[in-house]
Amino acid sequence: VTASTAAAVPDAASPIPAGLSRAQLVELYYWLRLTRTFEERLTNLYRQGKVIGGLFRSLGQEADSVGSAYALAPEDFLSPLIRNLGSMLVKGARPVDVVRQYMAKAQSPTRGRELNIHFGDLEKGYIGQISHLGDMVPVMAGVALSFKMRGEARVGLVYVGDGATSTGAFHEGINFAAVQRLPLVCVMENNGYAYSTPFHKQTAVRQLSEKAQGYGVPGVVADGNDVLAVYEVTKAAVEHARLGGGVTLIELQTYRRKGHAEHDSHTYVTREELAHWEARDPIDRYVRRLDETGWVRADERAAVDARIAAELDAAVATAEAELFPEPTDALTDVYAEPPVIPPLWYKEPVHG
Amino acid sequence: MAEVTYLEALRQGLREEMRRDERVFILGEDVGRYGGAFKVTEGFLDEFGERRVIDTPIAEAAIVGAAAGAAHLGLRPVAEMQFIDFISCAYDMLTNYVATARYRAGLPTPIVVRGPCGGYVRGGPFHSQNPEAAFLHTPGLKIVAPATARDAKGLIRAAIRDDDPVLYFEHKFLYRRIKEDLPEDEEIVTPIGKARTAREGRDLTIITYSAMVWKALEAAEQLAREDGLEVEVLDLRTLAPLDDAAIMASVQRTNRVLIAHEDTRTGGVAGEITARINEQAFAWLDAPVLRVTAADVPLPYAPTLEDYVLPQTADIVKVARRLAGY
Fold first, then answer.
1. Residue among A135, A147, A335 minimizing CB distance to B93
2. Taking the model in full, what pTM does it have?
3. Rounded CA gap, B176 and B171, in Å?
4. Predicted-complex ipTM score
């Protein structure tokens, strides 16, 4: 492979893998860069005290989220975890809504009830996570069950981390889905750590894909920092599921380059380990490949970068100008019926 | 008119809802060919097929979680817990995921989780439980507990039609012991959130639910016969949301309240009802609210132990007499 960027070779000389078009490669670049830049913006807002709760980064894992979600059709569903901002953006989540969530605004998708990227959209096809790891596996098995029951050629994709694969809910959900041969793909992001707990204290298997044997389903592994490899492996599993082949477990091997959340001192990893993975940054790798092949030129990427900056400016400005929810909105929509819970008699609402 | 058992009434309600609404389906352990541990879904596999009567692995969290996911996508799942004791295996899924789904994410989650509860059957600590208090404390869930065949049918139908998640606790002691004439042409639907006056009276009220309703009625009969007391029995039918209006109306009629439940005492439903009466109808009370409950122990197996721990008709009579004497 030559490292020439100026004299880019034409498409024909270096065929694009996985049946992707040049326009799709630009899109993939857009989603990767948007995820990275967006989280950097959010970090600034967090440091300015404008984020109400904690902030979670997916630095170094963007290719996992983007490449896997990109393999889904519009009618498919996914359920993200805390490091899958990229998946949600690909599925149609709007940056302004993410900023609203972090800032606890009234117009956020959860109306200030939930934090960060804990939100979903049934129209766009993603279901909001809860904090209890593994729980979304049975839920997404149920989503996939509804597809199967109705004879729809749709697929559910659920994300878990290395830590979540230790939970009972993961086991129950995958086993149920495997027995029922449901159209479910489980992406297991192995990023090395669950909070501070390293992989070897999480599980005795050598790699997560080995767990598939216990459920009688295929288990595959891909380089999680290669967005095209992620796309390819996920696409194959999704189409396998769509054709009635059932569950696939995909292990994406990657690395979490930030702490669990921004408050985490991250002292449990070494500089050497970080440097090793910085050198394998998924966006840098993708950009190098685009340069080497000439698939997407630097000036095209610069235009994407500029578009992202403008979109994020607008999203932050919109969200910042908005208000917190009215206090008494807290009493609505616990139930469909009754729609409002009576207020406690001694409560005086304090307005934001 | 046809005389049907509590269990048959429940089965009829389930079957009629499945016939009425293609979105309704059943999932649980051994519910298919076997028809369920208590045969509630007997014959369902033949009528509705494997697509709508799903035998699952032993995995309560997966059963409830999958029900929730399917409900988000527009279906109406009815999940069976083989014994309601095992609902604790799905406690996380119910309290953290299902109960919060509408509030935190606007997700419709119209599921029913049903199963046999209760003691008096020598079932021991893990086949006799009454777990309602654990869920009464969780906003977002509804809880029903029928005492009669009519309500066994009416409440399962209402639960399936309800847009919120409903826990349906059916009492296994009543399954085949209670019979009632239910008109075949009547569409019986018991409204959720509405108590029923099982017996009218003016001297004191026994507030209760589920199998304990029958012991309360027995006690009321005895008290009428032996003491000349007119005892009102209020069958709550729904525990969440509690029918405060019916409770307070009865307090205002009789001014004396006994709350009876089969569940253990501390942190039980009776404590919550007592607090509400205290807040909303204190001025109407002529006596402290008294409780008849199980003792605060796991439910033991031996007949002598179980009978001692669980509330009996004689206990209700004794406490009612104390109450009447204030």
1. A135
2. 0.95
3. 10
4. 0.95
